[in-house]
């Protein structure tokens, strides 16, 4: 194994063709277990088997190019119990195909497709032919910050025939062709770009499964709507996604970010007005306490939505 440090990027190489024949299988199993998680690897013929692995770190991600002859890789329950590691793997097939058995799902990953699977679950990878793929190891907390906590995305293929697929593939491959020294901020920028491409392809090709992220965003806005400074940039930063992607999620519901936030504030204001009197709680204070800075704007939008002024929704006897 060779390890080279390029500024903050650590690069590792494993190649079985540099190893004597009888040690190749053990060497390969150790290599993939070190880079990813402990795994069992089986090959049909030790004489014809070969494998090459190049790994580079980029911010929170470990990006690995894996090439080799046919093999079977297994992540079993015993390995998970002994060596837990909170990682989600994303496999992108450049050449060949891969069978994935994961959590009662069985798919065949073809060229130009990618799939997510959780290392906390058992899985089998069946590579029947010579293959070339790029695997991104993502900390689960980072994955869930972008896609939410739903498990529905695991074991489902993405990318085929998507307009962004080619850009995503080139971005992944370019990581292994450049010798540039990347600073930490630059690595973070590359990581965000990869996630943006991933997120858009997932949202476009499996929109039903992105509803959990949209629900999480709306819940966050509902919980924080009383903050008059709440805006789309803050929410995007909280979920580590782009403002454009948030806008796209709202567009699918025929609304905008601002419309939803305004409706949440007005809904809360109406509730407060209905259970208080003007002596207890002035209209101006209700407006300020539900995220409004401008009383005139609050009154105008309130009447537009409910057909009554804020004072008119109050009960006659409180």
TrEMBL record:
A Pfam cross-reference name: AraC_binding_2
Coiled coil: none
Protein known as: AraC family transcriptional regulator
Alphabetical UniProt keywords: DNA-binding, Transcription, Transcription regulation
KW Transcription regulation (keyword) present: yes
Lineage: Bacteria, Pseudomonadati, Pseudomonadota, Gammaproteobacteria, Moraxellales
HTH araC/xylS-type domain mapped to chain residues: 215-316
InterPro entries associated with the record: AraC-bd_2 (IPR035418), Homeodomain-like_sf (IPR009057), HTH_AraC (IPR018060), HTH_AraC-typ_CS (IPR018062), Tscrpt_reg_AraC-type_HTH (IPR020449)
Species annotation: Acinetobacter pollinis
């Amino acid at each position: 194994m060779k390890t080279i440090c390029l500024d903050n990027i650590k690069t590792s190489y494993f190649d079985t063709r540099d190893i004597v024949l009888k040690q190749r299988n053990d060497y390969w199993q150790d290599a993939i277990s070190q880079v990813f998680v402990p795994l069992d690897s089986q090959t049909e013929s030790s004489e014809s088997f070969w494998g090459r692995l190049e790994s580079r770190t980029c911010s929170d991600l470990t990006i690995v190019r894996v090439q080799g002859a046919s093999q079977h890789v297994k992540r079993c329950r015993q390995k998970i119990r002994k060596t837990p590691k909170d990682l989600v793997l994303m496999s992108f097939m450049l050449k060949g195909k891969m069978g994935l058995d994961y959590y009662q799902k069985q798919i065949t990953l073809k060229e130009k497709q990618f799939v997510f699977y959780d290392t906390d679950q058992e899985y089998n990878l069946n590579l029947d032919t010579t293959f070339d793929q790029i695997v991104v190891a993502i900390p689960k907390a980072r994955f869930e910050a972008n896609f939410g906590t739903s498990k529905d995305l695991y074991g489902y293929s993405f990318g085929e025939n998507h307009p962004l697929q080619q850009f995503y593939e080139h971005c992944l491959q370019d990581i292994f062709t450049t010798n540039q020294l990347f600073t930490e901020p630059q690595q973070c920028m590359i990581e965000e770009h990869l996630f943006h491409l991933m997120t858009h392809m997932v949202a476009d090709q499996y929109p039903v499964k992105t509803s959990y992220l949209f629900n999480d965003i709306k819940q966050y806005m509902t919980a924080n709507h009383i903050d008059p400074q709440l805006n789309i940039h803050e929410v995007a930063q909280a979920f580590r996604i782009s403002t454009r992607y948030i806008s796209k999620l709202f567009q699918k519901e025929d609304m905008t970010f601002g419309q939803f936030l305004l409706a949440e504030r007005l809904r809360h204001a109406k509730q407060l007005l209905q259970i208080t009197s003007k002596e207890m709680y002035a209209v101006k204070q209700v407006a300020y306490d539900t995220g409004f800075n401008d009383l005139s704007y609050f009154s105008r939008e309130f009447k537009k939505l409910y057909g009554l002024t804020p004072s008119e929704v109050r009960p006659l006897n409180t």
